[in-house]
Design brief:
The chain has 426 residues and is an alpha/beta fold. The protein is built from 15 helices and 17 strands. The two termini are 35 Å apart. The chain binds ligand DWN and zinc ion.
Length: 426
């Protein structure tokens, strides 16, 4: 498997094979992991830079995707300390996407009905962020507890009256919560399982939180959508694991959680929702998707071979498109200072010499600079005040919501560049 040079910063990719040989799987501890894709040394995708720090050396870490032939888990080799990733200034607030808020409200309603939750129940969310999900249960009079390590989002949740612990979730924290008499009827763990440094301990902690008969609902990006739709920019240091149902089922079963049902979702470029519980009985969806994964080969390395070459081709095509527009003297900016956007622009090799700015409506991101590329992040007002001719949509997973808001830009002749699943101008 030849690794591809994805970096402006030359690195020695031959280390990839060596690191693969030395590594062991995050879930089953198997060795002999298969190398899939080496994106080189990448900056932290949510590590937005302050102006005063721009001249300082920016931390970069290897970003290498591998496959475990034993349990089928796709994962990265590097583990960046969580307090570095999710520190004081972690800038991601879930509530800046109306689409995500609607999706979350629907999920909450479905789960509340399924479990007949009431004022005697308890919902605990791990990675509760700014209360985007728990606000629904609270509005229905159902007691809630949030757990999240990011200070800013937790403060926002507390402002909404949502009790939130500012802490990293762990088996020990789960014991403390249960020992205080707060076992859960429902645990929600959306877009966090992939982020857990101690993957097995994380699931064990969730098992601890649950009352007998309780359920956990996980949501996370589906590795099948990542590969099929070229979503290489969702590979970053916060995401340690990239799950198939096959790999996730193995991890849950190891910790006494049985799958009840599996759903495919469109959110975040294609995700899975897994509902599980101690002693849960699987419905037909579980056997069906496991059989489908075996049938298409998601549990074998061949499914993933060729992805690196396809990523290189997409990166070259997007860079060629941007360079072509630049040669024509076109003015280009970007929209959505998303974590995935940081990876995309650094892998493709786009920086402030190509794009004027990145607009983003999250005020916690405005005034900062994108990791690696040092692109300034500005209020979307800039699109009206200092209009580009083209807008590269870095948050392509929210393209419809974003383009709806930018109809005036479009009406004035502005064009959108959508990078994923293939570069196109609309
Ligand atoms: O795992 C994670 C995924 C699920 O969400 C986290 N590590 C962080 C986050 O990843 P992301 O930053 O790639 O997520 P988004 O939601 O794709 O980022 C969208 C960005 O676009 C946000 O910064 C908000 C911004 N935005 C905007 O400026 N105007 C979003 C919308 C909808 C808008 O209208
Ligand atoms: Zn494994």
């Amino acid at each position: 498997m030849s690794s591809m040079d994805f970096n402006c910063v030359p690195v020695d990719h031959s280390l990839f094979e060596v690191r693969c040989a030395a590594a062991s799987c995050r879930v089953c501890s198997a060795r002999g992991l298969d190398p899939l894709l080496d994106l080189g040394r990448m900056p932290l995708s949510d590590g937005l830079r302050r102006k005063e720090d721009l001249d300082d050396e920016e931390p970069r870490f290897p970003l290498e995707l591998v496959f475990c032939p034993e349990c089928s888990l796709v994962q990265i080799l590097e583990t960046v300390p969580p307090d570095v990733l999710f520190g004081e200034e972690y800038p991601y607030f879930s509530s800046y996407s109306d689409h995500l808020l609607r999706h979350s409200a629907q999920s909450a309603r479905m789960l509340a009905d399924e479990l007949a939750l009431n004022r005697e129940s308890l919902v605990i969310e791990v990675a509760s962020n700014d209360g985007y999900m728990l606000r629904n249960f609270k509005a229905w009079g159902i007691p809630v507890l949030g757990i999240d390590p990011a200070k800013g989002p937790v403060e926002a949740a507390r402002q909404m009256g949502i009790e939130s612990m500012c802490a990293f979730f762990s088996p020990e924290l789960a014991d403390q919560v249960v020992d205080s008499g707060r076992a859960a009827d429902l645990v929600v763990a959306n877009n966090v399982l992939a982020h857990a440094t101690d993957t097995i301990g994380f699931v064990r902690g969730i098992r601890t939180l649950l009352k007998p008969g309780g359920l956990v609902s996980f949501e996370f990006p589906y590795v099948r959508d990542l590969i099929d739709h070229m979503e290489f920019d969702t590979i970053y240091h916060e995401h340690l694991c990239y799950f198939s149902v096959t790999a996730a089922e193995c991890l849950l079963r190891m910790n006494g959680l049985m799958l009840k049902r599996v759903e495919r979702l469109s959110i975040h470029g294609g995700s899975l929702r897994l509902v599980a519980g101690p002693g849960a009985t699987p419905d037909a969806s579980v056997a069906s998707i496991l059989a489908e994964e075996r049938q298409i080969g998601l549990d074998r390395v061949d499914y993933y071979r060729g992805f690196a070459a396809r990523v290189r081709a997409l990166a070259d095509e997007l860079k060629g498109l941007i360079d072509g527009l630049m040669k024509e003297g076109k003015r280009i900016a970007a929209y959505g200072a998303a974590a995935k956007g940081a990876i995309l622009i650094n892998v493709v090799g786009i920086d402030h010499s190509h794009l004027a700015y990145v607009a983003d409506r999250n005020p916690h991101k405005q005034g900062r600079f994108m990791p690696g590329s040092r692109l300034p992040i500005v209020d979307p007002q800039a699109i009206r005040d200092d209009p580009p001719e083209y807008l590269l949509i870095l948050a392509w997973n929210l393209r419809n919501e974003i383009m709806d808001q930018l109809f005036l830009f479009k009406e004035a002749g502005g064009r959108f560049i959508i990078p994923i699943p293939r570069p196109e101008i609309i």
